[in-house]
Amino acid sequence: MHESPRSFLSTYEREKRYTEEQWRAEFIRGDWNMGFLKERPVSLLGVTRELDAPAGERYLEFLWVAAECRRSGIARTMLTDVLGRLRNGGVKTVFLWVLDGNELAMHLYKAVGFSSTNHRQPLPAHPSRCEERMRLDLI
After folding, report:
1. What are the boundaries of each domain within the chain?
2. 54-91: pLDDT as tens digits
3. Fewest CB atoms within 10 A around its CB: which of 24, 44, 78, 132?
């Protein structure tokens, strides 16, 4: 987040001010998958379910890989593993949002099978920027 601020909705400065209560509220929203390299966290991927969404739908959020580990295959491996677990757990459809200009993320998501839904929306905090919704059918 620090080294690539335009790839994320939030900022390091904003989140470093989160209280323990705010972090706990964030983490109970879904399942969090972490990747480690020599006992050091190097990747994160959240899986959430919208309150009114069907039981077979999930969202992927907060994909992050440590700067020194990017382009190493860690993100693709994490995505593949998480998608496999979701498929085995009966999830049928997975969605995510990708920010305009984040071509590396777009390429990665397409490589694992996501496609555009042709649904775009401006960011409320930055109306000049948009994000695109992507979808992957697991079944």
Report:
1. 5-137
2. 999 999 998 999 999 999 999 999 999 999 999 999 99
3. 24
Region 104-130 average pLDDT: 93
Q: Which two tokens stand for residue 35?
A: 């990747």
> Strands, E, within 53-114: which ranges?
57-65, 93-99
Q: What type of residue sits at position 69?
A: C
What CATH homologous superfamily does 5-137 map to?
Gcn5-related N-acetyltransferase (GNAT) (3.40.630.30)
Query: Distance (Å, rounded) from C-alpha 22 to C-alpha 40?
Result: 24
Strand bridging mode 57-65 / 93-99: parallel
Say what the pTM is.
0.83
DSSP state at residue 7:
G
DSSP classification of residue 9: S
Q: Which residues pair with 44 in a beta bridge?
A: 34, 64
